[in-house]
Amino acid sequence: MKKWIPLALVILVLAGCAQTFEGASPSWKAKYTVEETDDSGINRTFSLTYKGDIEDLEAAEAINYSFESESAEISGEHSLDGEIPKDKTFSFDVESESEKVEDETEIVDVMVRMGTELETFQLH
């Protein structure tokens, strides 16, 4: 029994090192994950998934996105070049100068623009 206590503590510590925020709009769903690394760094990953037909993406030249929390503010563009992508999910490794990890109670504001369509929503 005593052998399991250190293993259980390690699992609890590792499980507490990542925060995941999710949300959706009529056309998009998003996931933002923040994870502390062993070397005191922070990995941030942001993914957007288009909820419509993949063929709809062919007409778009680019997807512009931004998200903002108390700890980070990120924006970027993913070029589509008028081609149908192989997947409706776009993942981005996020670089931020912030060394603060988002608290699980934070709300992340998201903006996605594809062509003239603009959608805003929140991740919790």
What does the model show?
The chain has one helix at 4-15; strands spanning 18-24, 28-36, 42-50, 62-68, 73-79, 89-94, 108-114, 117-123. Helices cover 10% and strands 48% of the residues. It has 124 residues and is mainly beta. The relative contact order is 0.24. It has a single domain (18-123), classed as Immunoglobulin-like (Sandwich).
Uncertain residue ranges:
7-16
The gross shape turns out to be elongated
Q: Measure the end-to-end span.
A: 38 Å
* Number of domain units: 1
Task: Enumerate how many helices there are, as a single number.
Answer: 1
Structural class: mainly beta
CATH top level class name: Mainly Beta
Q: What Rg do the Cα atoms give? A: 17 Å
Main sheet: strands, sense, barrel: 4 strands, antiparallel
Strand order of the largest sheet: 1-2-3-6
Organism: Sediminibacillus albus
Keywords: Signal
Protein name: Lipoprotein
Provide a compact summary of the structure.
This protein is mainly beta. It has one helix and eight strands.
For the structure shown, list the relevant keywords:
Immunoglobulin-like, mainly beta, 1 helix, elongated, 124 residues
Q: What's the layout of helices and strands?
A:
Elements: H1 4-15, E1 18-24, E2 28-36, E3 42-50, E4 62-68, E5 73-79, E6 89-94, E7 108-114, E8 117-123
Antiparallel strand pairs: 1-2, 2-3, 3-6, 4-5, 4-7, 7-8
Keywords: Signal
Protein name: Lipoprotein
Signal peptide: 1-20
